[in-house]
Amino acid sequence: MGSRFGALLRGLRHEAGMTQEQLAERARLGVRTIHRLETGKPTDARMGTVKQVAHALADELKRDRDELWTDLLTAHRANGAAAGEDPRAARAPDPEPQHAPVPMPEAAQVREQAQEQAPEPDGPVRPVPQRTLPTSRGALAEAAGSLAHDVYGRCIREEEQRRIHDPFPLPVRWRSAPAELLDHWDNIRGTPPGAARGPLSLEGGLTDIADVYRRVRSGRLVVLGRAGSGKTVLVLRFVLDHLGARSAFEPVPVVFSMGSWDPTGTTLRDWLIARLLRDHPNLDARAPGGSTLAAALVDAGWILPVLDGFDEMATGLLGVALRELNASSLPLLLTSRTEQFAEAVGVEVLRRTAGIELLDLDADDLVHYLPRTARPSAPAVREGPDGRAATGWDPVLERLRTDRDDGPGARLRAVLSTPLMVLLARTAYSDTPAQDPAGLLDEARFPTPQAIEEHLLAGFVPSVYQPLPTAVPGGRRTRRPRSWDPHRARRYLGHLADHLDRPGRRAGQDLAWWQLRDSLRLSSRILAVVLACSLVTAVADWLVFPAKNLAAGRGAAFALGAGLLDALLFGPAVGLAFGLVYGLMDVLGIRAFEPSRVRMRLPGRRRRDAGPSSRRFATLVPAGLLGGSVMGLGCGIAFTVGAQLTYGGVLVHAAVIGATAVNCLMYGLTFALAGGLVLGLVATLETPIDLGCAATPTDLLAVNRSIVVRQALFLAPMLTLVIAFGGRLMTELLQGVVGPLTWPMADGLALGAVGGVAGALSYVLAFTAWGQWVLLTRIWLPLMGRLPWATVAFLEDAYRRGVLRQVGAVYQFRHARLQRHLRGQHA
């Protein structure tokens, strides 16, 4: 390769006035790689490497990237031919481990090699990551391979859950999107200035989507269609087919639901990283460069974002999102309803992005599909077309094919032109044999297509919540499936849909277990926190101080009575303090209720990251100081009032007021010291935990329960010791300043035990995602009748029945149209 390619490369580098080190830095490659390219060793450089060098030189020389790449590629191939090599060998196997989720078929390998030889193809082109990180390529390739495997498995399960292949996939066909909604084809195809190329032919069907995407040189494609036209099904097929033919250094397609993105406050990069961390927790591990693997994969171009539901964003955010997408050079596949996308691109198009528009189903599609979803009648009784057993759909389908445009068959044909409505019809009539689909032709009940659609939507939940079988043939015992009353199930689902659509919410379609608490007003949440923290403090106080009084030789009646009074006074003092800090954090936007990704580590063990999280430290320490101060103020008052009531003293007296002020100061400083010190220690000792096993909502919930229990077991003894000995320290420091003070260690340890247990439990309930889940979602919302007591079981069951879908660590309604319908019924 030293003769022609190396000479050309050296000449271009000298023309650009760059050293080998400068070119390596600009191309994001190693200096040794540039040296070997110029000297001719090795001769098996990958196309991605040559392309990175070409782009770096083109930018410096102010030349067209594709033109320069073509020159270098021609010289590279000529070198290979002169050396007696097969030109296809120019793309050598990656020396790193191969991590494809599915073995690449031989035909796909040949196709890939053929595509990479052509610098300006009209056929399929594989986008390759152009921003690799040389220092961590092996780690990123391995992480990308693991991610590809995970994504592939999830999409397979989602196809099974949606019964896409039962009995066979509904046809999804498309045509090229209207030209007025797209950028210039020369921009899409990367045509050099002065040249011209026409539009590509992008027509195809469900199994063609990956190949159609590869025809688009820019690697950017938008899929348009009506609501329920099959966009999400097409996304699943794209991901599976793309991964099935993916090489080890191609981007990994990952589905992101756009409804949860607020582009006014979060950049596209940061949002992609946050969603990767949520749905693939193992990517929270550190990359060699110091960032998370998720951030490194996005920055290095290893992620191909599949952005599902552009139209699900708030209308006012579409223009901002479009500008953010145009500012990014990432390849992407985006889905949207046609009307909303057309409105968004009225001022500015989505740059370098080709488009396709999904077509409606026709009567022949329904004739082939619906009868095979229904239970056949006995062939001896009657036969349908082509000699098959007849079904209840046959007379209905005949009307669909023959009715004039204003007849009931035509109205039903218009409704069943989308896969969503076909699914609803199948669920209501094929999966429920007692129902006769001929009722859909009743002109009195369904005078308009909209009436039929509402009927099908309304019948979905009752149909899927029919009682499940409790036994299997042969008498083998099985676990009894959970049974939910359809009316209650609809009410619970309506509450969830209402929670997603409430004003001001930006989480779109995501049903995250740690966010269900937000369906309650802030005042209700504060009240629940105050009551819960008051209760745990009162119980802890009543268990500790009566035992201390009994041990001191006081009578049982006195011990129990004084203990009860103490509990009734100290409980609300602590509860109000936690409620105040909780409400203040919410008002200030300090959200400490995300699922924990850290665990406590023992001192002396090596941390997985460089140091404590400054953000976590800056949140916990001030909260501990403020909460401790307020709690001390309340406990100082409670202590004085309790002592006066117990021993028959007066409450309004100068000496009593002075003693109360001293008690408030002592307790305030002691509890502030305990809260700030212990929570600061918690932040310091936390280290990221491997959440690779927590890829589903229930798994993440279980992991967080374990983390929170460990935190509570650490907090309780630490708070006990700091309160007991910190109070003694404050007594010595303030002795003589505010008068004579006493702090008997027996009383200090008893107070510390109450503060340790109550403080740890109150912290868990008020300031952890799992504690909020238990308090508000598992107890408060069921008490109000908005959710069932077995919330987790209900969500899992709704997923199994096909009402919800699972997207990483969250649930979503199967379709936004169903979500809106349930919300409307709930209102």
Total number of helical segments?
29
Question: Gyration radius, to the nearest Å?
Answer: 33 Å
- Order of neighbouring strands in the sheet with most strands: 2-1-7-3-6-5-4
Distance between the termini: 72 Å
Overall description:
With 827 residues, the protein is mainly α. Helix content is 55%, strand content 6%. It has 29 helices and 11 strands. The strands form 3 sheets. It has a 7-stranded mixed sheet. A two-stranded antiparallel sheet has the order 8-9. A two-stranded antiparallel ribbon has the order 10-11. Strand 10 (804-807) and strand 11 (810-813) form a beta hairpin. The longest helix is centred in the C-terminal third of the chain and has 38 residues, at 697-734. The radius of gyration is 33 Å and the shape is flat. It starts with a helix and ends with a helix.
Write the layout of secondary structure elements.
Blueprint: H1 5-16, H2 20-27, H3 31-39, H4 47-61, H5 65-82, H6 106-117, H7 137-161, E1 173-176, H8 185-188, E2 204-205, H9 209-215, E3 220-225, H10 231-244, E4 252-257, H11 268-279, H12 293-299, E5 303-308, H13 318-327, E6 332-337, H14 338-344, E7 354-358, H15 363-373, H16 393-402, H17 408-415, H18 419-430, H19 449-464, H20 486-500, H21 522-551, H22 556-587, E8 598-600, H23 614-647, H24 654-685, E9 686-688, H25 697-734, H26 745-767, H27 769-783, H28 791-800, E10 804-807, E11 810-813, H29 816-826
Parallel strand pairs: 3-6, 3-7, 4-5, 5-6
Antiparallel strand pairs: 1-2, 1-7, 8-9, 10-11
In short:
The protein has 827 residues and is mainly alpha-helical. The protein folds into four domains: 5-92, lambda repressor-like DNA-binding domains (434 Repressor (Amino-terminal Domain)), CATH 1.10.260.40; 145-358, 3-Layer(aba) Sandwich (Rossmann fold), CATH 3.40.50; 363-464, no CATH class; 516-603 and 610-781, no CATH class. 55% of the residues lie in helices and 6% in strands.
